[in-house]
Write a structure and sequence with these properties.
alpha+beta, six-stranded mixed beta sheet, globular
Amino acid sequence: MNSRVTLVVAAVSLVFGAMVANFVSPVASRPAADVLRSGTSHASPVLKLASWQTKVDTVKEGDLLVTVLQNAGVDGDDAALAVRSATSIDPRKIQPGMTVTTRFHVDSGTSDIRLQVGEDRVIRLRRDASALSSGGEIAWIESEEILPWTTDTVVVSGVITSTLTDALERGGDAFPVRLRDDVAYALADILEYKVDLSRDLRVNDSVQVLVEKLSAPTGAVRAGNILAARLTIGGKRVETVRFDQGTKASSAAYFDGDGSTMRAAFLKAPLAFRRISSVFGLRKHPILGVWRAHQGTDYSASAGTPIRALGAGTVIFAGWKGGYGRVVEIRHRNGYVTRYGHMSGFASGIKRGASVDISRTIGFVGASGLATAPHLHFEVLIGGVHRDPRVALKNVSGESLASPQLAKFKVRRDLLFSLMDREIATGVSTHALANSGSSTQRLANMRIGNAGE
């Protein structure tokens, strides 16, 4: 009996010893092939950090560039040296919103700084161990990069129901609101010899504009040149096309659909940014309280808005004249006289006998004389008799292109308007325009109308 127990205990001891021996055996004693075949590793996992890291910061109001760099992890002395090395910018005038990108190595520290100083302009500072500053430190080497813009063409079109500016603001997502305003003002400037877009457009008129859209790699967007526009105003068609004659003596300019320059002897309105508050005819005077002939047009605008000479001529009066308040009168070559009233003041050099060119600033909007609010009162006189400015200043066509250029112009005109019509009809992008990239169509429910009437 005792011998049997002894044999059992011995056997158990041998088995347990073997298990313990196997458990405590060093891992290294196992052949590598066995470890791979088993698919089990007893090695501890190692966490490896990326050698290069990037941090992006945005300059806030009141931030100093050196402080932004230090907050991004650039050593204080390195940050100061980097700012001194950025000679193409004034660190005291950095704008809020500027993006600062720092790239650094976990061992060697910051080695690259990118300053997004503009929509398409980047200043790069790169550490160069082979170059030393005047103080003996590793120098920062400055370089500038201009980012490329891509150009698309966008069609905006629609039927008029309110103002041009509001129409383009509602014209889809082609441009941010601010840029849509710029497109509206650019169109008004192109047509300023032919159409006063603040008063001539009416409900159910239509407008179609082919305009460049410029995009930067950063996502920034700009409105480029208006290439062509077609408006239907009171049943009459007005067209304009941007055309480059390809000569050193002339740059790109705008012509009407027949190839005549859009420029003429008179502008259609004395204010660049305008909103009409009344039109030619009878009205009840706001101060005198009686119905009287309103001999001219009132342009409502903020006090101080520059007033432009409608055409070239000579100042025959600049001073105070009764209910007009401060007023300027200009006699033009055709014998017409234009009158500008309720000014807050006169521009430098505007006095009797002074010669003025078309579009020159002659004064500023105010409320002098019999006026209840800032506005410009504008009149046209022919032979001393008041005339409706829209009738009296109806411009004839300007100078036409010469025959060789006219033929090229017609080809360009037909290309642009066929492109515009195709996109409006199908919505299909096209690449027909040379050097203009892809083209996308945007339909706008545009609203333009008879402001002030």
